[in-house]
Amino acid sequence: MTKAEKGTTMISDLFRREQVKMTAVLCRHFGIKDLDFVEDIIAETFLRATEVWPHSGIPENPSGWLYTVAKNIAKDSFRKKASETKKFKTLLDSNPQETVELSFNEHVIVDSHLAMIFAVCENTLSPKGKICLSLQILCGLSVEEIAFALQSNKEAVKKILFRAREQLRESNFEIKYLSSKEIQQRMDSVLLTVYLLFNEGYASKTKNSVIRTDLIKQAMNLGLSLLETKPARTPELLALMSLFCFQASRLDSRMSAEGSVVVFEDQDKSKWDQNLIHKGNEYFLEAFSTPSRSRYHYEAAIAYWHTQEDSLEKWKYILNIYDNFSKSFDSPAVSLNRVFAYSKVYGNPKALEEIKSYSYEESRDYHSLIGYLYTNSNKNLASLHYQKAIQKTKSKKEIAVLEKKIKELNLKEKVSL
Question: Where is the DUF6596 domain (predicted)?
């Protein structure tokens, strides 16, 4: 790789990770209504990196370089604004340090990130507007990724984002100290944002890399910061953190040395992080200390049982949880995962009868599950549904897993002949 190519690749990798941090800090400093101004600063920062790095070399501390340039651009931009209006000039003269004292240390980044998410989750915006805007500007997800996360389509998400941004410009949004009541009123939207961010990191449907540790770390750091805020330390948050810990404990076992995805049944359990499982258990017990039950409680309970040794009793517990889960939080994912658990308890033939009550023809997971259920009884149908699943996904890693399953079916058929 040439020096220029290396610089371009580095910039691409940094852009998603650092733009989120810059957006949070700059918006908190200049105000959420100045989102366009903030995005211009960030765009100019990365433009300068693309002009400088490929030729002069990548700095020893690329993130630090970006933050320094962003501060200088913000300072120059603010001074330009100040010269244009008396109001800004007065502000600049009376407090010249206010425009330049930007800090990008980790504490300020996480603190600003949370403050921004809580601000966007103000009740003036529509429920989907809050989530979409938070995922885009504060989590760095693309329109396509948001569409997958919300099981929607790109055009619908674009319209939601357009309306939310317009509303943001026209309203009196501000980042301010929130009362305990205000924090609790916004927690549902905040938790859903963090949950969807983690999910995109844990099992990306849109990128070549199924696991994206930067997003997982970002979501878990936000959750940990929320735990430090007393009004935010709810049973729902504790259940969510328990789920994160259980899921993250298996990260090292989900990818092979060659970079291919390892399905749950084939994972090396000795690689599971026992410290994370132990921490997940602590959050789990605290989350279930009250009668409150949320979607995160159900998912945490299922994830807990996945950390236990395989047995029929284990799958009976999981199926029972899914039965209760589906009554309150019905969705394609819950329904299909319930059928998988059903197959573990009652066998694949009965599970095939059970899945007939669902119709998710456009779902990759639907066809993949049917392929799995037909594996031992009808290899042609199993292969057909795996091929349909391939057509429903853009992830090269997921396609590789499905192609491997088809290959294994063909090998088994040859052996049986």
Answer: 186-287
Question: Could you tell me how many residues make up the chain?
Answer: 417
Which residues fall within 8 angstroms of residue 154, CB to CB, at 6 or more apart?
Answer: 143, 144, 147
Whole-number Å distance between alpha carbons of 134 and 151 = 17
Q: What is the pTM of this model?
A: 0.82
Cα distances (Å, whole numbers) of residue 352 to 347, 364, 375:
9, 17, 11
Q: How far is CA 242 from CA 42, 182, 254, 330, in A?
A: 35, 24, 19, 22
- Burial of 303 (C-beta count, 10 Å sphere; 0-12/13-18/19+): buried
- Residue 175: count of CB within 10 angstroms of its CB: 18
- SS3 at position 28: helix
CA dist 32 and 38 (Å) reads 9
CA dist 238 and 284 (Å) reads: 7
Helix (H, G, I), strand (E, B) or coil at 230: helix
Instruction: Read off the tokens for 338.
Output: 């319930």
Q: Is the dihedral of CA 260, 266, 271, 275 positive or negative?
A: positive
Burial status of residue 155 (CB atoms within 10 A of its CB: 0-12, 13-18, 19 or more): exposed
CA–CA dist 96, 346 (Å, integer)? 71
* Nearest C-alpha neighbor of 204 from the set 19, 364, 391, 7: 364
Model pLDDT for residues 31-77, shown as the tens digit of each residue: 776 788 888 998 999 899 888 888 888 888 888 898 889 888 988 87
Amino acid at position 219, single letter: A
CA distances from 367 to 341, 383, 386, 402 (A): 16, 10, 6, 11
Q: Which residues does residue 255 pair with via DSSP β-bridges, in sequence order?
A: 261
- Contact 66/42 with Cβ under 8 angstroms? no
For residues 255-273, average pLDDT? 85
Nearest to 174 by CA among 111, 98, 114, 119: 119
Please identify which residue in the block is written with the tokens 């057909």. 384
Tokens for 49?
């990196």
> How is residue 232 written in tokens?
């935010």
